[in-house]
Amino acid sequence: MSEPATLPGIEQTPTVEPTEGSRTFTLPPWIVLLHNDDVNDMAHVVQALIKSVPKLSTERAVEVMMEAHNQGRAVVVTCPLELAELYRERLEGFGLTATIEKA
After folding, report:
1. What is the pTM of this model?
2. Tag placement on the chain: N or C end, fewer CB within 10 Å?
3. Do the Cβ atoms of 22 and 10 come closer than 8 Å?
């Protein structure tokens, strides 16, 4: 195989292959929990879920709302910490009670 062409005055970035001892780390997932409340009506909760967590379908939002209503809390989504914090803040912005926990 021939060497790639180089241009004068431009440094080439070396390719670094992972070594046998190198490690990759995966951050632990977090869950966003929606807690039941007696203040917000069901339609408001479903709309808040859909607007706060874009990947939730209407059907899934209804399931989450019903589980929180019947069981006291429900898992909304499992995701990295930064997204979990964002989704929790969005839900709280709609007047809902939400928390995050390590999955």
Report:
1. 0.75
2. N
3. no
